[in-house]
Each structure stands twice: as C-alpha cells, then as structure tokens.
Write a structure and sequence with these properties.
It contains 6 helices and 14 strands. The chain has 239 residues and is of the alpha+beta class. It folds into 2 domains: 77 residues, Phosphorylase Kinase, domain 1 (2-Layer Sandwich); 129 residues, 2-Layer Sandwich (D-amino Acid Aminotransferase, Chain A, domain 1). The protein is globular, with a radius of gyration of 17 Å. The N and C termini lie far apart (36 Å). The model has no long low-confidence stretch (mean pLDDT 96).
C-alpha cells in the first residue's frame, strides 16, 4: 500500500489517501509542538519511535477486544489504518494530578486521584481546545446523544485499565493521556490517532523521571532517549 495524495497535515502527522478509499496512511513526523503551537522544535527519529510505540499498543488493545483503526505498520514512519469520520472530542484520561489539572484547580501536583477522571476537550485549535461538558458536546453536534458519550467514557476507562496495568509491569506509571475516536464505515465508534509519549504522560515508577513530551515542554532535554526507553519497555516481555 502506497501514499497517493496528502489529505491533511497536523502537528505530529501527515494523512495520506491510498488506492483503497477505506484506508489511509499516517506519516509520523519528527516535529514537536506544545502550548497549542506556541513552542516548536524537531527531534530526528521521534516520529519513527511514536509509530513503533503506537503500533505495539494498538496491537495490544486489539488483542484485548478494543476496536481500533489500526491495520499495520508499513515502515518506520508509516502506519496503515482505516478511514474514519473523526469525532472532534479529545478525551483526556487522568490517574494522577499534574499539568493543567493542577494549575487550574489547585490540586497538588503528583497527587493520585481517588478515581480515574475522564474529561472532554473540543478538538479545535482556533478556539484553543476548550473544555466541554456533555451538553456542549450535544449542542455542537459532536455526538448524537448522551449514550454515545457514555460509550466513549466507558471505552476510555477500559483502555486506561489495560494500559495502566501494562505499563505498571514495565516500571512505568500511566499519569494521564489523550485519546481520539472516530466512526468507521459501518458507523461504529472506534479508537483512532496514536498512542505515544506525545499524548501520554509516563513516569518511571522507581525514579519518577518523566518519559514523555514534558521533557520538551519543560526544557528537560533527552526526549529521544526517553522515547526509546519507553519503546524498549513496551516491547519487553512481561516479568
């Protein structure tokens, strides 16, 4: 399967059409952005690491019964996947308070939450990805009804349970992460996008070292080294 036409270029990926109208190719870029594009840089090899990590995690979730858009990894930077109608909601799943949650609500950074928090952001760069409640989602016609929101929340929590346990066995704490969903050609809501340290906060369970894009956001350096270590652990056999 080969790239045919560039359909869209985002912050982290290019999306290409293929000769099959139901399949697309995502090209993972080396670009780095933060603060809705306010910070920009590039790290050679970052895209390939994200593609490999995402591939491994999509395969894991598929084995666990989570419907996803993933088909196969084509090469270091290219992933073949189903074409979907993207639901313009960023689903934020939080196990530990940090980042914007701590800043906005004054919750102590690093505090474990009493339950898994699932939040919705409007996937709209021009508006700065504002927070959404259920009524906003329906008014904006991002979903058809509250039952679809309940399903998305259910799937987010199920994915969190699988990945939290998976990472714990590899000495990584799943702090929080962002998910996206879309509708396939049969109108099923499935998991899409990517599952990488660009969208996940991961802390080493022994040292507390940050192993994700916060290394870029906070000027810590060593981002590619951290991503490579995450990949090594993801591919590691369970203890």
């Amino acid at each position: 399967m080969k790239k045919v036409k560039l359909l869209y270029e985002g912050k982290a990926k290019k999306i290409w059409s293929t000769d099959d109208e139901n399949l697309l190719i995502s090209e993972f870029k080396d670009d780095l952005t933060a603060g809705n594009g306010a910070m920009k840089s590039s790290e050679e090899g970052k895209g390939a690491l994200n593609n490999k990590i995402s591939t491994a995690l999509f395969k894991l979730l598929n084995r666990k019964g989570i419907p996803t858009h993933f088909i196969e990894q084509l090469d270091d930077n290219l992933m073949l996947h189903k074409k979907t109608d993207v639901i313009k909601i960023e689903v934020i799943v939080r196990n530990i308070a940090t980042g914007s949650l701590s800043r906005n609500l004054g919750i102590e950074d690093g505090k474990e939450l009493p339950f898994t928090l699932v939040e919705f952001d409007y996937k709209n760069d021009e508006l700065g990805d504002p927070k959404l409640n259920d009524q906003h989602c329906i008014i904006l016609e991002l979903v058809r009804d509250s039952a679809e929101l309940d399903y998305i929340r259910y799937m987010a929590r199920k994915i969190n349970h699988i990945l939290k346990e998976f990472y714990a066995k590899r000495d990584l704490i799943l702090v929080d992460f962002k998910l996206e969903f879309g509708r396939d050609r049969d109108d099923n809501i499935i998991l899409i996008d990517e599952l990488s340290p660009d969208n996940f906060r991961l802390w080493d369970s022994k040292s507390g070292e940050k192993m994700d894009k916060d290394r870029f956001r906070q000027g810590l350096g060593g981002l590619k080294v951290a991503y490579q270590e995450v990949l090594n652990r993801v591919l590691r056999e369970e203890k």
